[in-house]
Amino acid sequence: MKKLSARRRHPLxxxxxxxxxxxxxGGLYAAFAPAEKAQADTSAQSLAIDEGKKLFAVGCSSxxxxxxxGSSDGPSLVGVGSAAVDFQVGTGRMPAQQPGAQVxxxxxxxxxxxxxxxxxxxxxxxxxxxxxxxxxxxxxxANAVAKGGxxxxxxCAQCHNFAGQGGALTKGKYAPSLDGVDPKHIYEAMQTGPQxxxxxxxxxxxxxxxxxIVAFVRHTTNDEPNPGGLAxxxxxxxxxxxxxxxxxxxxxxxxxxxxxxxxxxxxxS
Amino acid sequence: xxxxxxxxxxxxxxxxxxxHAVAVHDDPFADPGLPVHEPRRTDIDERAAKRAERQVSxxxxxxxxxxxxxxxxxxxxxxxKIVYIFPLGHVSALNFALGLTLGVALFCIGAxxxxxxxxxxxxxxxxxxxxxxxxxxxxxxxxxxxxxxxxAESGFGRRKMIRNTLIGSMAMVPLSGVVLLRDLGPMPQQKxxxxxxxxxxVQKPLQLINMNTNEPMKPEDVLVGSLTxxxxxxxxEDAEDFQVQIAKDALMLIRIAPEDIKDSTSRDKGFEGILxxxxxxxxxxxxxxxxxxxxxxALCPCHQSTFDLADGARVIFGPAGHPLPQLKITTDExxxxxxxxxxxxxxxxxxWERKR
Lengths: 269, 356
Description:
The complex is a heterodimer of chains A (about 270) and B (about 350).
Chain A: H1 2-7, H2 13-31, H3 35-41, H4 44-59, H5 61-64, H6 81-90, H7 112-123, H8 134-137, H9 144-155, H10 157-160, E1 167-168, E2 174-175, H11 183-192, H12 207-223, H13 237-261
Antiparallel strand pairs in A: 1-2
Helix pairs in contact in A: 4-7, 6-7, 6-11, 9-12, 11-12
Chain B: H1 41-44, H2 46-76, E1 82-85, E2 89-92, H3 93-119, H4 137-154, H5 160-172, H6 174-180, E3 206-210, E4 227-232, H7 242-249, E5 251-255, H8 264-269, E6 274-278, E7 290-292, E8 297-299, E9 306-308, E10 314-317, E11 326-327, E12 329-331, E13 337-339
Antiparallel strand pairs in B: 1-2, 3-4, 3-13, 4-5, 5-6, 6-11, 7-8, 8-9, 9-10, 12-13
């Protein structure tokens, strides 16, 4: 009896075996068969593109189209590259608030991660300039500022003013001031030519020269003291003359009037 | 109407007590005379006068101290020292100290002098009558008589040959000065009509050299929407006459999609949409390179002349008289951008002898 009972199977044994078999089959399938596909889908790059596409659909597609193909309200983004997205969104220019002569920079509403995701999506539409790495825009050469100044005066100063203070263009457009602009954004602007700014691609202005220009702009807008006192917008003799005539001469006239208005007579009339 | 005139300056009309002013009621334009002299506090109070004297001296002493401060800051302060001063920002400590002390020194001399004159110097009003400008009849008659005698004795009226040759010689003297105007410089000859690109021929074209890299460019280097400045091959930046040459030779190199170029002549002068325009404005010759890559407008910063580079650099705004000259470009055997000749017309501002 004991021998018999020892060899007898439990009534649920068959069910257990069946469940184990099913779990093993499913488990093995899950472990092997879809493994490659799942790996491709979860790679950081395609996740970023997916996330970027969603952000793009919400923030950008009303003008640039759902696939960045452009519309009557906004240009095609095929081939503008990730650098253009990082510049436009990172400086708050995009999404644009309203149409006009020029889209101004404003407070950026996206995190850098979100910008990178949108940049990844736009970059996936067509090849274009990529977001520069920090060593691409950080000059290490001791003479970079001097060389950059020369290049800046040749290529940039005509619009952005010799001290990077910006200036007017045609029909309401303007070259913005470069005060406090992130080095990465300066580099990207040269690379991509945002809005009406012409681009300065690596083929005609090598990376090393862009680096030097960034160094000069940072130096002249941030660190450089004004030995003469007030910079007055670095606009040259016009503002200086205006300041002298209005405030200098104005103060002299005010003093003269004050002197004449106060009599020294003992009997005040 | 008379509210801004103090009372003592008005003709007396109410029978007031201080009646030096002459009031003639039937002549409204009568000379009212001088107003009554009012003494100042310093005229009647010796303590006030002493105080004013001390104030004036104090200002002069402050001026002296400021001058000493000027010399001291010149000696003590390092020329490279930069300090932060609130509304001005980072400024040179030396410049700031020199300006401040010199300003105080000069202001205190002026302010002291004004205070001295107003409080202590006599303020009595003194009329000073002018003498008549005209001389009296006797003197005039005498002068005229002397002149007549002199003229007659010189024979100026009688000896006509002397008179006429004198007038002739006087009239000719200024001609020397007119001739010397020639020394203002050599005549420009044909220089205004040609540029450094003149050396280029179809057999021996000149490469367009990128001003940034100092190297020739291939068409694929110049992207749509980019802006590059170019000079002719062989013009080196350390050359003695570089500035003279580049003032005529400078090129603005842009690329526009060929279907966006409206002017077919301009398109043919370019190479696959790459257009090479003179960088010198045709108004007064400013370097013009404020290029807008979406509108293809180039704006001159001096007088806002605006050129449409997609339409043969037509003038669309401003005082410029004619379009920017365009240089015909192509590629050589190695594929570099070259020019095969000079501009078709003179670059830069118009001049009298300009043909078109």
